[in-house]
Amino acid sequence: MTSYDVIVVGGGPGGYVAALRAAKNGKKIALVEVDYLGGTCLNRGCIPSKTLLKHSEIIESIEKAKSWGIKTENLSFSLKEMFARKDQVIATLRSGIEHLLNAGKIDVHNGFGKIHKDKSVTVVNGNESYSIRGEKIIIATGSQPAVPPINGLDSVKFHTTDTIFNITEIPQSIVIVGGGVIGVEFANIFTSLKTEVTIVELGNRIIPTEDEDASKTLLKSLKKKGIKVLTNCQVTSIEECDQKKTVHITSEKGQTESLAAKEILLAVGRKPNLSAVSELDLNMNGRHIAVDEYLETSKKDYFAIGDVIGGLQLAHVASAEGLTAVENLDGKKEKMNYKIMPRCIYTNPQVASVGMSEPELKEKGVKFKVNKFSFSGNGKALSSGETDGFSKVMIDEKYGEILGVVMVGSHVTEMISQSTAYMVLEGTVDELASMVQPHPSLSEVLMESANSLIGKGIHS
Q1: pLDDT of res. 308
Q2: What's the rounded Cα separation, in Å, for the pair 94 and 228?
Q3: Around Cβ 231, how many Cβ atoms within 10 Å?
Q4: Rounded mean pLDDT of 254-283?
Q5: Which member of 5, 14, 60, 412 has the greatest number of CB atoms within 10 A?
Q6: Tens-place pLDDT, residues 45-69
Q7: Using CA atoms, how far apart are residues 213 and 445, in angstroms rounded to an integer?
């Protein structure tokens, strides 16, 4: 049986990054992956969806250009060619990961990894199986789409966020069950392809875990694009007859409605992949693996990272957890700072945030000040025709420390890193206000918000 210093089970953005860092630290590493390297993020999540969202953005820009005097007639698009480009992007990145792992002399074991109590892992690939042993184990098995118990669903062909990339033609209509991050991103993709889109959300608003003003702004944009959004609605049953699907819903007030659609996409969240750890008898945090502040499980020398431990189920969070776990393998006491983790939604307009929200600050009794500055007053936004959105900055009332930032608008998923950097360095609103931003630029909205908070606003 081959022995390693560390066995990482799961080759997603948490697992392969952890393997690479541990190898750079001089460890002998095994990485076990049952599917393609890169995990859900690369193969069925972040990368393919953002590639298609870029296509969506271009289509919207071309259509907008008609009102600017740029005439583009007979716009058409090929789903086959769009998906081919998506596949090419995935293949390129997957190849890059393989190269890094080879360069790091990491042994990649293709197969399902079953983790045992004696620090061994059985790798199963078809009819073949063998075991390897590690001094430390990192569990990075990720998650899979959750499928809710809906009447009739077992007899209906539907898509999850794992299978939606397998469609072969643009559907005339689609019902998306779930108005969270994934649901609204796919709504943007399909509406740009001229699909009739309906979102059904159980809660009282879309993107319910994000800022309420951001939710309202995004809702307005979705409706402007012709997307039907139904909130406070529960899907009670789904049926299919002659390839026609019908989604039956009931509103909070008891009103019923039936929605006909060519395709159905379930986007109601994800559940952890736990089959690899079924023998370990680990302590659990709800349905996720419980870890301490150093990412170690209830079993010594077994660490867990990423979606399988819950919390912020984001690729960059999983990667950061992987790096932190590796530092703690040898007894270090590194901790994650989840308070300063950027969160991004790649719709058009985009949504990005970092730090605490207004409700969180109020709940904690923090005395704070907040300013909201609209993109409609920004020169670059006006010249680009991208005025939907705002910048909201929240600061500590006493010291001016930046506690949270919410941005909605074009390219805000790139700009949020500027706010994150200030917060990592415990920067104050005075420092943000004094920073000279290039003109014209969208980032000027941050400067305007900061200056307004200290009574020095020029354009507000």
Answers
A1: 98
A2: 36
A3: 18
A4: 96
A5: 14
A6: 999 999 999 999 999 999 998 889 9
A7: 16
Phi, psi dihedral angles at 31 (to 5 degrees): -120, 120
Structure tokens at 249: 């819903």
Is residue 423 within 8 A of residue 354, CB to CB? The reply is: yes
- Helices 444-453 and 412-424, axial angle in degrees (round to 10): 50
Element at 231 (helix H, strand E): none
Question: How many Å apart are CA 30 and CA 394, to the nearest integer?
Answer: 44
Q: Which residues pair with 159 in a beta bridge?
A: 265
Distance CA 185, CA 143 (A): 19
Does the pLDDT value for residue 254 go beyond 80?
Answer: yes
pLDDT in the model for residue 75: 86
- For 3, half-sphere exposure in the C-beta direction (CA atoms, 13 angstrom radius) is 4
Give the integer Cα–Cα distance in Å for 428 and 422.
7
Residues 162, 324 contacting (CB under 8 angstroms): no
Q: How confident is the model at residue 456 (pLDDT cuts 50, 70, 90)?
A: confident
Determine contact, residues 121/29, Cβ cutoff 8 Å: no
The rounded mean pLDDT for the chain is 95
DSSP label at residue 360: H
**Cβ 282 vs Cβ 272: under 8 Å:** no
Q: Which helix (H) or strand (E) holds 97?
A: helix 79-103
Per residue in 297-354, pLDDT tens?
999 999 999 999 999 999 999 999 999 999 999 899 999 999 999 999 999 999 999 9
Tokens of 387: 């005025």
Inter-residue contact 352 to 345 (CB < 8 Å): yes
Model pTM? 0.95
In angstroms, the CA 202 to CA 145 distance is 17
Give, in order, the Cα–Cα distances in Å from 350 to each of 346, 405, 406, 437: 5, 14, 11, 21
Catalytic residue among 109, 411, 439, 459: 439
Decide if 151 contacts 234 (C-beta within 8 A).
Answer: no
> When comparing pLDDT for 74 and 80, which is higher?
80
Which DSSP letter does residue 438 get? P
Element (H, E) at 46: helix 46-65
Tracing tokens 């941005």 back to the chain, one arrives at 407
Q: Which residues lie across from 431 on neighbouring strands? A: none
Q: How far apart are CA 289 and CA 297, in angstroms?
A: 7
The question of whether 439 is a catalytic residue gets the answer yes
Helix (H) or strand (E) holding 318: helix 315-328
- Report the pLDDT averaged over residues 290-300: 98
Mean pLDDT over 246-257 rounds to: 94
